[in-house]
Amino acid sequence: MKNKIIILLISLSSFAAIAVFAHTKSIQEGLYSASIHENRIEIIVKNNGCTKAQDFRLDEFNTGEYVLLNVVRTKPDLCRAMSRPMTVNIAIKAWGKNNHYKIKNSFITNK
Questions:
Q1: Residue 108's CB: how many other CB atoms inside 10 A?
Q2: CA 108, CA 38: separation in Å to the nearest integer?
Q3: Listed residue (33, 22, 23, 36) closest to 95, CA to CA
Q4: Which terminus of the chain is more exposed, N or C, with fewer CB under 10 A?
Q5: Taking a C-beta distance cutoff of 8 angstroms, is the pair 57, 26 a contact?
Q6: Strand 67-73 relative to strand 56-62: parallel, antiparallel, unpaired?
Q7: 53 and 42 in contact (C-beta within 8 Å)?
Q8: How confident is the model over 54-86, as pLDDT tens digits?
Q9: Cα separations (Å) of 14 from 2, 11, 19, 25?
């Protein structure tokens, strides 16, 4: 009986760890809009009530021809408020003045 309880506890703790990992998985964010300024990218994203600017990171890769930008949400917004757009500014590395940028994210439309 004691062994069955130990096995049950180990199973439950493994399930809890998997559930926490699933909620912290980073995902590529769909954007309503994006504009690149001298040292930052300004994006508009979906906000269900709990989104913060710190919930995003910007992955940058210089190909030589252009800089590829990818906005990633690191923390999901699990709130249930009516979704609304939110503006977020993220710093861009200084790649030089004449760089071309490409954004890897998909864009959301209202249609």
A1: 15
A2: 24
A3: 36
A4: C
A5: yes
A6: antiparallel
A7: no
A8: 999 999 999 989 999 999 999 999 999 999 999
A9: 19, 5, 9, 17
- Could you please report the per-residue DSSP string of 29-73? PPBSEEEE-SSEEEEEEEESS---GGGEEEEEEE-SS-EEEEEEE
**Cα–Cα distance measured from residue 70 to residue 21, given in angstroms and rounded to the nearest whole number:** 22
- 56 contacts 45 by C-beta, under 8 angstroms: yes
In this prediction the pTM is 0.73
Instruction: Find the length of the chain.
Output: 111
Which pair of structure tokens corresponds to residue 68? 């590829």
Contact (CB, 8 A) for 72 and 59: yes
